[in-house]
Design a protein that fits this description.
Layout (H helix, E strand, L loop, with lengths): L4 H6 L7 E4 L3 E5 L9 E5 L11 H8 L2 H10 L6 E5 L15 E6 L19 H13 L4
Antiparallel strand pairs: 1-2, 2-3, 3-5, 4-5
Length: about 140
Amino acid sequence: MDDCIFCKIINNEIPSTTIYEDDDIKAFFDISQVTPGHTLVVPKKHVQNIFEYDEELAQKVFKKIPMIARAIKDSNPDIIGMNICQNNGEIAYQSVMHSHFHLVPRYSKDDDFSMTWGDNTGKASNEELQKRADSIKQHLED
């Protein structure tokens, strides 16, 4: 994509701090550095979101995430955890429409990162939950 900032980073048209690169992915520091070491893992193939991945691309991208995450954690003894986030669509906070994974090292409960999860326990009956599950199962591909 001509106007995609991540494609420009992949093609070295925009500088980045790269920590890993191979034929399929590039991992580089997020410019915002929500916490020190905040890294993006990006497929070199332009896909907008997770819904556009085929099995081959998923294997190429996903298999490298644990390796990169371990390297980030091992690089700093102060890292005590890590959030790995992947957002799809503006409603899900995706701001660059080129699929990417955020690896956000965590140093304490007081660092500059948070996630809020709603609790809807008990709001759907067992029957409603089964109906949702059945609908999803109908769309699964083997």
